[in-house]
Amino acid sequence: FMKAGYFYANAKSRGVQHLHAHFSGRTVDVAIFLSQFLNVGFSFTGHSNDVTGNYPLLQNKINLASFVVAENERALEAIKSYILSDTSTVSAHIVHPGVNTEYFKPNMESQSNVPTLIAVTRLVESKGLDDLVRACSVLRDKELQFHCNIIGDGPVYDQLENQILNGRLEEYITLHGALTSVDIVQLLAEAWIFVLPCVRILGGQGDHPGKFVSVVEDGIPSSIVEAMSVGLPVVTTDVGSLPEIVEHSVNGIVISERDPDGLSEVLLQLIDDSSLRHRLGSKARETIIADFDTVVCSSVLGSLMSTAINNRRVV
After folding, report:
1. What is the pLDDT of residues 196-232, one digit of tens each?
2. Do residue 115 and residue 91 come from a single domain?
3. Which of 231, 220, 164, 245 is nearest to 191 (CA)?
């Protein structure tokens, strides 16, 4: 309530006609109060991890909104389950998180001469990076010359470092830690294949104790969107929302989780087949330009807001 009062004068002076918030927690609470002060409508984007659990207050927030946005199909279905079909006029839509496709764009001139794999992610158990290290061990044992860059930080960093050292893979895998976006773009340009072999885990991560969860169930990882935008073929698993963006043998490769041997076979196939890499990578970029470009996503959200303003209902 106090935060809404803090923003009121500024919003009033700017002639704000509609409010949009991200996440379904306190930001939406502020939007509700502020919309009442300003006598305007509000909407919000529900991210998978805050709309797919048991949240008693969420139904009221959704049904007060002019519309609600989901980032993926899984979140959309969860939001729809809260809508009171008999009394509510709220609508639910998918608007993907956008990426700047001019910043994340192909740069074939920078591609490494050595087959190069890349994973960009938070280093947590559900990303399946231990399987990536095991797959790299298989490739090494086949006497393949390659390199794998793992970028990011997180609680399993030390575990991965020990796995690499114990497997004598230091020559083949580099743990970079967290890097700037400029450095990430450069390493993406050098890469041949983006890999994220996500897995489901039982509790112990996030706010989902006692159930099988995966970080990717919280949405579509931005690192995959960025990799596809630069035209890289993506190898990932059939976990969470990943199959919504990576279509097997069309714009990437989707494999079963927890299969490092199968992962190594797919990576070897892609390394050996440049035409397949280029075809998948080209389709990957087409997917992002069509559905995930920042301009496209902003336009969709802007259109929804314009409609809400024209058909505004008082909260």
Report:
1. 999 988 754 444 444 444 444 556 899 999 999 999 9
2. no
3. 231
